């Protein structure tokens, strides 16, 4: 019987024991009428003892019957020999409709009969009326349909070793169990000796039967291990912690019910959501990926990494010995410890772990046998017949030696040790490696992959030696995990006060570093002795996986990046934990000795890209995979390390933040010696409110902030993955391998802790992902360089108080002063105080925004300045919808106008006869003018303003400044410079241009909807149909809205009259563009409100009314222009609603074979206790929670369109290989 039913039995039995179990009585009409009615009186009434005694006895019988019902999977087979049932009077049948749907006591009693009528103890049992019978038959049919699904779910849940029999006979010796009987409850304590039980004869016989089955199970476990490993002796029942055995009731529950009642759609979905809860996430080998499983595996891996054998073994055994915890162990947890003992050649420990695996009801996989063979290979003298028996058992389990070498991830010399053991039995054995790579056969790209004979792919403009040198530079940067670069603010002249503050800050850093280092060592020593109490909360192993200095550097880096306004404790802790994890991942790769193999493969891979080698018809993915196969010996390049869950990173990060808050001190009079001298904290832990939630906040002391602001540091420290790569990225060959050399990178980026996307990718066939991987490789293989003349102009403006119009944020010295006043000053009225308070809040918000924008620009410009003489690459990955993004977050080609203007292609191409004309047309597009002009008209306009174009290129800051009025000013200025250089060259057709032209679709979301709905009118407005002039949907919507406004203004509508002359393309563009991606009227109103605020002449008092009016008109215009769009959106939304209501997430596969799942689940609140505060973590991606129906249905239409959008982009990049 399932564990779920067993818990209900205990609860019910405890209630029966409380009421007493001495009487067997009859149900009466009067009694149940009393139970279902409530009478209230203000006058205390003396309790009727006899009546209360009678009611308790009746309730006792009902509960006893319920026990029997729960103990049987088929309710019609339950029999109770002691309960006499009499006919219920019509009075009960006349209950209200609400009560008629409930399980009335009389109805429950009738359910205990196995036939239409029977005699028990001489009492005739009468069936209830037809009304009751039909109602119960309907319920029975429904339960027959639900129960098998529930039991299937419970059996899957119990595979990891949860005791499946509710009788408790298979519990581990030394535990306290409760045996449930039909009449009495007794507590049994098993202490390795004969236990005394008090139970009915029937229950005793059942317990005895289960005990016999358990002994047989123990015998089978012993015999199985004896076959697998001959050194294992038979195991007695006292040596086994727990052996799971399916109860008789569960076997009966395995019957399939053929009768399924026809239900309407919504009702059927409701039943499915109840009977088919989502299973825990599992990988291809059946390893569970719930949060507890991840925490255990991470802990064991950390213990193995620091070579703490005893701690890892104790942790595993502590979970294995308790049934309630054993369910969290998967086969991978046992394998981690098994590999640890295999390194030591301890065969006895390997055998014992196989015993534990059998006890847990798990099946050894290839990694288990690989560890066993590795151990045999390390033994000085291993008898060959033991190895033979092991290989024979592998065949019995459906595994082969080739599977071990193909599927397992090896570290150091593990592969050689396994091969050594196999060759002791089969001296001539060679691992078979398939050199034939599967070919993608998706219909959309089948022709692309089929017609490749004789095809060649372009090479980079680098020699083989240059690429190999670049690889070594990138490898060194990633090994260091951080990089320190010069800040562009260092170009400012250094004042005396600035130099003084820099020296002071450097001195303080040395003191802080020393204090943190000493405190960390003390804390680790304390945790080392106390960490055995709770494995789930112990962080000692995670504080030992790196050097102490590494943790101190991470803490000081966090202090440097802290904003003057502070940061959320949760965010700060997660960032620090993530830095520890990244550094730990790189250390693991170095420890596994795979870096040497990586260098060898990359040097050979460079031959495919270098311009001084022979051409090769292989794609980068194919080339890299082929090289891996050729170098199959030694450690694997892939890593099987477990990703850290978000809770773990927050737990570790909060510990480090707590150290900083407690230990970092500064003298209070460091800036003013006249003040009292005392040590004060550098960081303060405080609380603030965000969206009515109180959250912890870490804020620096104003003295520290002032020192940092005046010092204007000349150095910036970044994580290595923030920087572009100095060599071509590693091509994506699988969901686990690609992008950076050492830094862990997900193929599909997701919310921290969400792993369902990665598991879904890993379960896909390799060839189904080839098109997606090849597309990412193509986009990431493009080299870039910096537009140095433009960079110098931007830096000069940045260091000269910035320019808001040109999107160069000013420094904090230009921020508005925060008004200060004494709220207790009687000279201020309440209205004045409220006004001053509002102004203070606005000023603080403005300062915070200015600081954020200033630092973002500082990072971008500093990285660009650092890379000004380099050639670099942007590795790419994608979001869960398939949209591709560069991995470096600050500086990339998908950034703002500033970063796009700063980037040039590293490899140029001659313009040719039409190239210069296309540059001029592109410049006009960047201005935002001539949207409805033909290409010829735009070229003619460009020719008419050539003087302004050349003046902008020659005198960008002191000329006519025409470029500053463009929609994209910095890209426009870069284009002006390129046009000037090309037009002044001797032959513009041979001019080598490096200028990138960014292309964008005409409201791409509407394009997809128009194509899906075959909407000709809508397709024409978004340029999907041929037209004489380019169409602009935003101008069309603006024109339609203006017609609506004019009509309403004639009718006397005030707001329509106010809006005259203010409706433009810019006002409605963002709302039109995002409507197809699910924006609501509320969100659209905020977008229009923001645009109206940017218009200086628009009356501010009418902004709310105007935005409310305009968003209504925009939605109406789109409804008229795109007839099918809304219908398709509604159909997609309704489909997602029904799917989510059934208890499933919405999943689909793109035309390029990319599997997609929406990670929206009900929020799971998890509280993490730390010494500073209890952190409340809201997890919305836990796949074990029910789907969030609202998010699932609202997000599906835009996500689906985004997935189609990404498919088109990937197809384009694939054909760029030609």
From TrEMBL:
EC number: 2.7.7.6
Transmembrane intervals: none
Gene3D superfamilies to which the protein is assigned, alphabetical: 1.10.287.280, 5' to 3' exonuclease, C-terminal subdomain, DNA-directed RNA polymerase, N-terminal domain, Tetratricopeptide repeat domain
Stretches with biased composition (Low complexity): 163-185, 197-211
One of the record's GO molecular function terms: DNA-directed RNA polymerase activity
GO cellular component: mitochondrial DNA-directed RNA polymerase complex
Location(s) in or outside the cell: Mitochondrion
A Pfam family matched in the record: RNA_pol
Principal localisation: mitochondrion
Biased composition, class Basic and acidic residues, residue ranges: 186-196
InterPro entries xrefs: DNA-dir_Rpol_C_phage-type, DNA-dir_Rpol_phage-type, DNA/RNA_pol_sf, PPR_rpt, RNA_POL_N_sf, RPOL_N, TPR-like_helical_dom_sf
Ranges occupied by PPR repeats: 330-364
Chain segments carrying region Disordered: 91-124, 141-215
UniProtKB keywords: DNA-directed RNA polymerase, Mitochondrion, Nucleotidyltransferase, Transcription, Transferase, Transit peptide
Catalytic reactions on record: RNA(n) + a ribonucleoside 5'-triphosphate = RNA(n+1) + diphosphate
Residue ranges of every copy of the DNA-directed RNA polymerase N-terminal domain listed in the record: 472-781
Any GO BP annotation: mitochondrial transcription
Signal peptide start and end residues: none
Job description of the protein: DNA-dependent RNA polymerase catalyzes the transcription of mitochondrial DNA into RNA using the four ribonucleoside triphosphates as substrates. Component of the mitochondrial transcription initiation complex, composed at least of TFB2M, TFAM and POLRMT that is required for basal transcription of mitochondrial DNA. In this complex, TFAM recruits POLRMT to a specific promoter whereas TFB2M induces structural changes in POLRMT to enable promoter opening and trapping of the DNA non-template strand. Has DNA primase activity. DNA-dependent RNA polymerase catalyzes the transcription of DNA into RNA using the four ribonucleoside triphosphates as substrates.
Binding partners and assembly: Homodimer. Component of the mitochondrial transcription initiation complex, composed at least of TFB2M, TFAM and POLRMT. In this complex TFAM recruits POLRMT to the promoter whereas TFB2M induces structural changes in POLRMT to enable promoter opening and trapping of the DNA non-template strand. Upon metabolic stress, forms a complex composed of FOXO3, SIRT3 and mitochondrial RNA polymerase POLRMT; the complex is recruited to mtDNA in a SIRT3-dependent manner. Also forms a complex composed of FOXO3, SIRT3, TFAM and POLRMT.
Family stated for the protein in its record: Belongs to the phage and mitochondrial RNA polymerase family.
Protein name as catalogued: DNA-directed RNA polymerase
Organism: Cyprinus carpio (Common carp)
């Amino acid at each position: 019987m399932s564990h779920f039913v067993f818990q209900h039995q205990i609860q019910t039995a405890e209630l029966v024991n409380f009421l007493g179990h001495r009487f067997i009585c009859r149900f009466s009409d009067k009694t149940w009428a009393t139970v279902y009615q409530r009478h209230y009186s203000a006058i205390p009434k003396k309790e009727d003892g006899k009546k209360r005694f009678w009611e308790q006895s009746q309730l006792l019988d009902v509960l006893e019957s319920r026990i029997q019902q729960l103990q049987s999977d088929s309710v019609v087979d339950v029999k109770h020999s002691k309960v006499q049932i009499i006919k219920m009077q019509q009075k009960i049948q006349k209950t209200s409709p609400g009560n008629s749907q409930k399980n009335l006591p009389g109805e429950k009693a009738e359910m205990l009969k196995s036939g239409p009528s029977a005699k028990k103890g001489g009492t005739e049992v009468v069936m209830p009326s037809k009304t009751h019978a039909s109602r119960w038959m309907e319920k029975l049919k429904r339960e027959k349909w639900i129960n098998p699904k529930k039991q299937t779910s419970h059996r899957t849940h119990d595979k990891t070793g949860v005791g499946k029999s509710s009788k408790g006979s298979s519990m581990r010796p030394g535990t306290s169990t409760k045996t449930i009987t039909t009449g009495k409850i007794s507590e049994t304590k098993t202490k390795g000796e004969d236990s005394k039980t008090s139970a009915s004869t029937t229950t005793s016989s059942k317990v005895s039967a289960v005990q016999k089955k358990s002994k047989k199970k123990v015998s089978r476990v012993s015999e199985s291990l004896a076959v697998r490993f001959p050194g294992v002796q038979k195991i007695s029942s006292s040596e086994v912690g727990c052996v799971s055995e399916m109860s008789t009731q569960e076997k009966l529950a395995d019957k399939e019910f053929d009768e399924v009642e026809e239900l309407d759609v919504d009702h059927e979905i409701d039943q499915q959501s109840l009977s088919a809860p989502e299973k825990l996430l599992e990988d291809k080998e059946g390893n569970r990926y719930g949060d507890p499983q991840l925490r255990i595996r991470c802990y064991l891996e950390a213990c193995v990494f620091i070579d703490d054998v005893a701690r890892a073994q104790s942790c595993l055994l502590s979970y294995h010995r308790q049934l309630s915890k054993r369910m969290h162990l998967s086969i991978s947890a046992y394998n981690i410890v098994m590999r640890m003992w295999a390194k030591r050649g301890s065969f006895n420990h390997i055998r014992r772990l196989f015993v534990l695996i059998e006890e847990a009801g798990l099946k050894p996989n290839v990694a288990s046998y690989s560890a066993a063979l590795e151990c045999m290979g390390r033994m000085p003298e291993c008898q060959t017949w033991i190895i033979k028996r092991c290989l024979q058992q592998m065949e019995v389990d459906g595994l082969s030696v080739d599977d071990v070498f193909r599927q397992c991830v090896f570290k150091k010399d593990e592969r050689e040790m396994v091969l050594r053991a196999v060759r002791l039995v089969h001296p001539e054995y060679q691992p078979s490696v398939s050199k034939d790579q599967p070919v993608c056969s998706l219909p959309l790209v089948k022709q692309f992959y089929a017609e490749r004979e004789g095809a060649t792919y372009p090479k980079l403009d680098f020699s083989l030696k240059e690429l190999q040198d670049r690889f070594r530079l990138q490898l060194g940067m990633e090994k260091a995990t951080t990089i320190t670069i010069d800040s562009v603010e260092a170009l400012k002249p250094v004042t005396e006060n600035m130099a003084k503050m820099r020296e002071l800050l450097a001195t303080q850093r040395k003191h802080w570093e020393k204090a943190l280092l000493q405190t960390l060592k003390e804390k680790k020593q304390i945790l080392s002795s106390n960490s055995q109490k709770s494995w789930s909360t112990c962080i000692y192993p995670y504080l030992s996986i790196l050097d102490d200095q590494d943790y101190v550097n991470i803490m000081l880096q966090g202090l440097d990046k802290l904003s003057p306004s502070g940061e959320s404790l949760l965010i700060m802790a997660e960032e620090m934990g993530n830095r520890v994890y990244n550094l730990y991942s790189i250390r693991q790769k170095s420890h596994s000795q795979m870096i040497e193999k990586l260098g060898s493969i990359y040097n050979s891979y460079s031959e495919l890209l270098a311009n001084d080698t022979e051409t090769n018809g292989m794609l980068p993915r194919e080339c890299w995979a082929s090289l891996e196969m050729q170098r199959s010996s030694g450690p694997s390049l892939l890593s099987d390390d477990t990703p850290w869950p978000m809770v773990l990173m927050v737990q570790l990060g909060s510990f480090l933040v707590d150290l900083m808050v407690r230990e970092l001190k500064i003298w209070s009079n460091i800036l003013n010696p006249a003040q009292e001298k005392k040590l004060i904290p550098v960081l303060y832990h405080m609380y603030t409110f965000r969206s009515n939630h109180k959250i912890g906040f870490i804020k620096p002391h104003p003295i520290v902030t002032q020192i940092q602001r005046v010092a204007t540091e000349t150095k910036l420290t970044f994580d290595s993955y923030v920087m572009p790569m100095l060599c071509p990225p590693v091509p994506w060959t699988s969901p686990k391998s690609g992008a950076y050399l050492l830094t862990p990178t997900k193929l599909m980026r997701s919310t921290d802790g969400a792993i369902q996307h990665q598991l879904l990718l890993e379960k896909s066939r390799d060839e189904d992902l080839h098109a997606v991987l090849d597309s990412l490789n193509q986009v990431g293989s493009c080299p870039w360089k910096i537009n140095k003349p433009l960079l110098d102009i931007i830096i000069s403006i940045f260091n000269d108080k910035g320019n808001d119009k040109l999107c160069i944020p000013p420094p904090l010295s230009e921020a508005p002063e925060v008004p200060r006043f004494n709220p207790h000053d009687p000279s201020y009225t309440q209205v004045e105080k409220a006004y001053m308070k509002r102004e203070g809040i606005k000023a603080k918000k403005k300062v915070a925004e200015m600081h954020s924008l200033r630092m973002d620009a500082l990072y971008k410009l500093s990285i660009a300045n650092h890379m000004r003489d380099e050639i670099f690459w942007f590795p790419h990955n994608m979001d869960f919808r398939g949209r591709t993004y560069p991995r470096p977050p600050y500086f990339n080609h998908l950034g703002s106008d500033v970063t796009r203007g700063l980037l040039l292609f590293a490899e140029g191409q001659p313009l040719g006869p039409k190239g210069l004309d296309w540059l001029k047309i592109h410049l006009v597009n960047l201005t935002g003018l001539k949207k409805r002009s033909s290409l010829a008209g735009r070229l003619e306009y460009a020719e008419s303003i050539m003087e302004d174009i050349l003046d902008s290129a020659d005198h960008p800051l002191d000329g006519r400044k025409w470029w500053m009025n463009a929609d994209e000013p910095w890209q426009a200025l870069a284009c002006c410079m390129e046009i000037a250089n090309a037009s002044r060259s001797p032959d513009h057709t041979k001019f080598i241009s490096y200028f990138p032209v960014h292309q964008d679709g005409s409201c791409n979301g509407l394009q997809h909807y128009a194509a899906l709905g075959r909407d000709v009118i809508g397709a024409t407005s978004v340029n999907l149909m041929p037209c004489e002039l380019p169409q602009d949907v935003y101008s069309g919507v603006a024109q339609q809205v203006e017609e609506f406004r004019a009509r309403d203004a004639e009718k006397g509508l005030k707001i329509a009259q106010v809006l005259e002359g203010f409706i433009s393309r810019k006002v409605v563009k963002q709302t039109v563009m995002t409507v197809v991606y699910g924006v609501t009227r509320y969100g659209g109103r905020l977008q229009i409100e923001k645009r109206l605020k940017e218009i200086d002449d628009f009356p501010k008092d009418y902004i709310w009314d105007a935005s409310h009016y305009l968003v209504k008109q925009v939605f109406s215009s789109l409804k008229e222009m795109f007839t099918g769009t809304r219908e398709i959106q509604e159909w997609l939304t309704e489909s997602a609603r029904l799917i989510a209501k059934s208890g499933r997430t919405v999943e689909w596969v793109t035309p390029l074979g990319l599997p997609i799942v929406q990670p929206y689940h009900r929020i799971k609140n998890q509280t993490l206790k730390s010494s500073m505060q209890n952190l409340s973590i809201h997890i919305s991606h836990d796949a074990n929670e029910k789907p969030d129906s609202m998010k699932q249905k609202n997000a599906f239409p835009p996500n689906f369109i985004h997935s189609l959008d990404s498919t088109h982009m990937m197809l384009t990049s694939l054909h760029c290989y030609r």
